[in-house]
Each structure stands twice: as C-alpha cells, then as structure tokens.
Design brief:
The protein has 163 residues and is α/β, with parallel strands linked by helices. It contains 7 helices and 5 strands, in the order βαβαβαβαβααα. A 5-stranded parallel beta sheet has the order 3-2-1-4-5, sandwiched between helices. Helix 2 links the parallel strand 2 and strand 3. Bound molecules: adenosine-5'-diphosphate.
Length: 163
C-alpha cells in the first residue's frame, strides 16, 4: 500500500523524517507531495525542497517526491491512491488537521487520512522555528544539528554564502 505525505517541507526537518520512517513500517511507499504554504512565503524553492528530500532519503526506493500543482485529493485520484499521511504535534495541529481531513474527505470520499502523533522530543520542532534559528545563529552546524538533517544545514549554509 502507498501513502501520500503532503506539506510545505520548507525545509524538511527531523520531525518529518521520523514520521516517514514510522510510516514506512505501515506502508510500502511514501510520496512527499511538496506544496506551497497558504500562510507564509517559501524560503526554499520547490526544486530545492524536492532535492533536499531526495538527498535525505538517498537511495530508498520506497520514498518518492512530487511537487503539487492543485489539490492533494486530485493528485490522489489521478494516481489511484487512497491514503494521506499527516502528523499531529499539539492541539493546534489537531484542530487544523481535523478541518483539513473533513475537506479532503468531502472532495474525494475514497480518501482516508492517517494521522501519526509526533514523538515526544519532536513536538516542538517546526520548519518555521528552524528558519528562525537560521536567521540569528552564528554557528549553523552547532545550532541546527538537533533539528534538521545535515543536507539541510548545508543548504542553509549555501543560502548564507550567497548573501
Ligand atoms: P504544512 O504547511 O502543510 O503544515 P509542514 O511541512 O509544516 O506542512 O508539515 C507537514 C506535516 O508534517 C503536517 O502534518 C505537520 O503536522 C507534520 N509535522 C511538521 N513538523 C513535525 C514534527 N516535528 N513532528 C511530526 N510531524 C510534524
């Protein structure tokens, strides 16, 4: 069975990685569906986010990455898929995910969303928190290594070098 993990992944964090590692115990294949965020302009481009996910999961053939262009439910329909993966860190996520789950079910009632709880220790980890550290940190390797994969630290360092 296959599952689709939609999100902005701007950038992918160790929270996302841990959710996907666990999903791979339940499903044969996980497809990241990289989308724009409704609330914030993106820091990394679609291509950069896609490449980062690929490099984090290296040669794992069970992990695919696609860029979203339209509704997640349409992507599922087009590819004859049924499952959406989302994760919950706190009560804010719960309310938001419940609402999105209902919308997705109304748009395509073949769809089932599977929710995993973030592991304790990963509950406070968010892409926006990581970007905040990037903005202020004077030592990215030291300050980000607990939160994002090495490939993402390198990408942040490259961005800084461009300035
Ligand atoms: P979105 O902008 O769609 O919320 P994100 O990339 O922030 O996209 O998150 C994608 C999914 O991963 C969401 O279901 C979110 O709750 C979950 N997620 C984000 N950070 C973590 C984390 N630290 N641990 C577990 N799940 C997470």
């Amino acid at each position: 069975m296959k599952i689709v993990y939609p999100g902005s992944f701007d950038p992918i964090t160790l929270g996302h990685v841990e959710v996907v590692d666990r999903a791979l115990r339940l499903f044969d294949e996980v497809t990241f569906l990289v989308a724009s965020s409704s609330t914030k302009p993106s820091f990394f481009t679609f291509e950069e986010r896609k490449d980062l996910i690929h490099s984090v999961f290296k040669n794992d053939k069970r992990v695919k990455v696609e860029v979203a262009s339209g509704l997640t439910t349409d992507f599922l329909k087009k590819n004859q898929l049924r499952f959406i993966l989302r994760a919950l860190r706190n009560s804010n996520d719960y309310e938001y995910e419940k609402q999105m789950g209902h919308y997705n079910y109304s748009l395509n009632n073949e769809v089932e969303t599977v929710y995993l709880f973030a592991r304790p220790g990963k509950e406070f980890l968010s892409s926006s928190g990581v970007k905040e550290i990037f903005r202020h940190s004077k030592n990215l390797e030291r300050d980000l290594s607990e939160f994002v994969p090495l490939e993402v630290i390198k990408a942040f360092i490259d961005k800084r070098d461009l300035k």
